[in-house]
Amino acid sequence: MKVLVAVKRVVDYNVKVRVKADNSGVDLANVKMSMNPFCEIAVEEAVRLKEKGVATEIVVVSVGPTTAQEQLRTALALGADRAILVEAADELNSLAVAKALKAVVDKEQPQLVILGKQAIDSDNNQTGQMLAALTGYAQGTFASKIEVQGNLVVTREIDGGLQTVSLSLPAVVTTDLRLNEPRYASLPNIMKAKKKPLETVTPDALGVSLASTNKTLKVEAPAARSAGIKVKSVAELVEKLKNEAKVI
Ligand code: AMP
């Protein structure tokens, strides 16, 4: 089974993001960038499927700037076989990414496409669902367990419990946090990854337009929280909740 994994380059989750002075977006100058954490889980799951003998080839794809090659190389070091970068300089919305991924799916014909459930920069939680709609593939979102039993049996994390669905292949799956714990790339594998194939394609060559249908008008940082205080007694706490915070 060929598995396609979509990985996004995002601001590292440890970075405290700064908003640009003109509120036009987040300041990316000199900021550490990494693979989106949910995409790391997607790569790990594909590698585990290969180790189990279920997956035969893992192709990773990213839609983004040339620098996204770094995240593709990381995925190759984690166990992917080859990588594709769809070059796009502008900020992309989910539909544009889904269209580019659909073109790659048409070319590669994977049986399974794994994406993260959400990119931690845009928080869209849309791309996997849109890709499933565009390709007509079955979809299992927020996966916390994946088993291949002829069909693909996906346990989904939903509000207040778990739902198990059986998907016919080909299928699109998006990963939730508890699906697995991604491994670290070893130094020998990082070295080997440098020699693995990484193809760069333009949206034009794939026959897709990545023109955005929406525009970010303004980005604002959350209001700073005021400092807390310590109270000496329960009575004082109740008095403050009643008369200052006015919440009881
Ligand atoms: P989103 O819908 O933007 O929250 O992203 C959900 C998932 O879609 C991510 O975890 C990735 O697997 C995939 N994805 C989003 N944007 C890109 C991109 N530019 N390149 C490759 N995959 C992407």
From TrEMBL:
Cofactors named for this entry: AMP
SMART domains registered for this protein in UniProt: ETF
GO molecular function, one term: electron transfer activity
Listed Pfam families: ETF (PF01012)
Keyword Transport: yes
Residue stretches making up the Electron transfer flavoprotein alpha/beta-subunit N-terminal domain: 23-210
CDD domains: ETF_beta
Record carries keyword Transport: yes
GO annotation terms (biological process): carboxylic acid catabolic process
Keyword tags: Electron transport, Transport
Subunit structure: Heterodimer of an alpha and a beta subunit.
Annotated function: The electron transfer flavoprotein serves as a specific electron acceptor for other dehydrogenases. It transfers the electrons to the main respiratory chain via ETF-ubiquinone oxidoreductase (ETF dehydrogenase).
Family in the record: Belongs to the ETF beta-subunit/FixA family.
This protein's name: Electron transfer flavoprotein subunit beta
